[in-house]
Hints:
Blueprint: H1 2-29, H2 32-43, H3 55-60, H4 65-118, H5 121-154, H6 162-206
Helix pairs in contact: 1-4, 4-5, 4-6, 5-6
Amino acid sequence: MDEQLSYLEKLNSKTEERIKGLEAALDYVTSASFIEERKRDKNRTPPETDRRQNELYDRYKHITDSEVALMQLQLKDLGELRQHYSLLIERGRMERSWIGRKTGDGEALCWLARVVGRDAPVAITEASREMITTYESDIAYFKRTINDISRARARIVPSGSLWTLDRAEELSDAYDDMKSRYEHHIRWLAEQAGAYRADVIELRKDH
Length: 207
């Protein structure tokens, strides 16, 4: 998953660079100064064309209206592609975060399973307390993440083409699904932590 996310982030970065380049070019070729310069250039007599070299102007001085329209279409397509990458990256990050937390839980459970197998009450108590600490840490983490998700979802402003609106709705749904998953898991974690506390109390009574 890390490799896939890294690849998507690189693609998204390249898309961002292309968008910036196109935006700068369009700003220039549609600017009043460029349009006025082209008009003056067409009206100059040949000897007057020996003005100071302007590489940016020379690059675009023969651009046509159809080429400008094509650049605008490319910019729109790149914007939609950026949204697509952003959606995939955000969903991937949330899933990676989820897997990372569950991996930590699995390690703690493995430790508990080993000491239970040895039937060592003191070690079991210590491992149970570790599980309680792990689950409490998870609860705090998921609560913070839920707040982050709520803020991220609030920043979504549905606007643009139907395709763009669909991507915004898809991202909103992804946030809602992950938030619901975290809320459900918080309740489960709280129940599990409570069960381990009860076990610790019983173990202390017996020993």
